[in-house]
Amino acid sequence: MGKPKLRNLPDLSDRVAPNAEIAVRVTPKAAADRILVQDGTIRIYITAPPENGRANDATREILAVALGVAPSALILKRGQTSREKVFVCQA
């Protein structure tokens, strides 16, 4: 059984720029994977638990799909153990 398809994600491609910092707030162990943008703040809900970096990896993957870049183009700059994270886009 493969990963479920990510659907109905907002288009965040306008935030892609070389070395752009993208701040997000993550909620792990959610009922479903989704992204909400409220007042310019990106909130990411993921089903992965915050253990052994699984939540960070899942956040990177869903954010990459919404941005339209490869997951390897996103580097976690701050927030390895926090809900408030900052990714740097290397695309």
UniProtKB/TrEMBL annotation:
Q: Which domain of life is it from?
A: Bacteria
* One Pfam family it belongs to: DUF167
What range does the record give for the signal peptide?
Answer: none
What's a GO cellular component annotated to this UniProt protein? Answer: cytoplasm
The record's family statement is: Belongs to the UPF0235 family.
Q: What PANTHER family does the record tag this protein with?
A: UPF0235 PROTEIN C15ORF40
Identify this protein by name: Uncharacterized protein
Q: Which organism is it from?
A: Ruegeria faecimaris
Q: What is the lineage of its organism?
A: Bacteria, Pseudomonadati, Pseudomonadota, Alphaproteobacteria, Rhodobacterales
